[in-house]
Amino acid sequence: MGASRFLYAASAVAFLAVYMYSTSPSYPYHFTMGDRLMSYAFQILFQDTVWKEALEEIGIVSSVDMTRILMAAAVKVTNWCLEKDNSLFKDSEVAGIPVRIFKQGQEKQTESKTRVAIFFHGGGFYGGDTATHHYICEHIALNTDMTVISVDYRLAPENVFPAAIDDAYTVTKAFMEDPSVDTNQVSLIGDSAGGNLVMAVIVRWRLEGMEKRIGKFASQVLIYPLLQIFYFNTASYLTPAEQQITTTTMTIQTLCSYYAVGNRSLVPLLQSGRAVSCRNMERIVEGLWGLVLRDDELHLCPNDTTSVENVLLNPIFSPLATESVKDFPPAFILTAEYDVIRDDGVIYANRLKQAGVHVETLYIRLGHAFVNFVKCPLCHPDAMLSMDSIVNFLNAKRQMVED
Predict the structure, then answer these.
(1) Rounded-to-10 torsion of CA 274, 279, 285, 291
(2) Pairing verdict, β 97-102 and 147-151
(3) Strand duo 89-94 + 97-102: pairing
(4) Hey, what long-range contacts does 296-303 have (CB within 8 A, 24 or more apart)?
(5) Measured in whole angstroms, how far is the alpha carbon of residue 314 from the centre of its chain?
(6) Predicted confidence (pLDDT) per residue in 66-82, tens digit
(7) What is the spatial distance between Cα 351 and Cα 335, in angstroms, rounded to a whole number?
(8) pLDDT of 61-70, one tens digit each?
(9) Are strands 359-367 and 114-120 parallel, antiparallel or unpaired?
(10) What are the φ/ψ torsions at residue 118 (nearest 5 degrees)?
């Protein structure tokens, strides 16, 4: 690492350290300094801190744009510190949608047809791109014989639902119809909001009859997925505010509003507990998920259907609200203990198991977004463990198809 790169990295660490000790949330005892710095990096990017709100209030820059600026800066710092193999990928388009294609040499890809992993990045539907998740896709490409397609889908608030899922679905359909692709060996992968798109594509694929017309997906990999955006009383959401060390309930409610309507106007309704009728809450939360609604929740929810339920309960928007997951693709689901959306992944895994679908799970005692730290020297042991587990799952799925 050159002197200038070291200086940039040291400056970033110093800034994080100052921020860390000035805000001082309640961390688990086992968190190392590296764990805390990693968590603070995510907080700076995605949480609406006082200084972000101040910049937006005086009209300098919106919170969304500030998040994107910080993410772009993080990518630059990361690329300065790491060596990117430019021969491994190329930027392209599929049906007018930008994609980054990762492909190893022909010595690894010896089959006449290509195995494909389609990756949807996280970022709360309003941040992230192929650059922010480059090293996750690189790791998959280097350790499997798959071509990895990272999709640069349209972001909120400029492009509201269903723009992101439309792009994800269009790219997926294009590769499933490509004669050079082995349609029995197409896997969908996504983290956070990208995990939402993975399940949403599977749900829509079934609703439109594509399983019979084209085929089923080989597998699905969901990394701390956000799978429903209307019920904020699961155990993970009820974590005390001072212990919500990366994602917060407010963060999820805000991104939901951006994704649904392009602004924050839905946040008060989501906070009130009156966004979804009691009838639908009971049908989904109790009937499909097997949870028990508290009396105070039933007291708050309205009797009549609300004006926003057609979006919030749409199984393409909140795919965990889908009626059935029977015969879904084999799944690998990673969840993080200190993450308010942890239980989305847990509920999905339980539903799949109950439906007889093969499921592998991994539970990591960290906060959200740690898997991005997969390439050394900016690596974390749990990120490397997680990605190696995902690679092993993908390679095992290939072996099962061949057998």
Answers:
(1) 110
(2) antiparallel
(3) antiparallel
(4) 297/233, 297/273, 300/272, 300/273, 300/274, 301/273, 301/274, 301/276, 301/277, 302/274, 302/277, 302/278, 303/277, 303/278, 303/279
(5) 18
(6) 889 888 988 888 888 88
(7) 15
(8) 888 898 898 8
(9) unpaired
(10) -100, 120
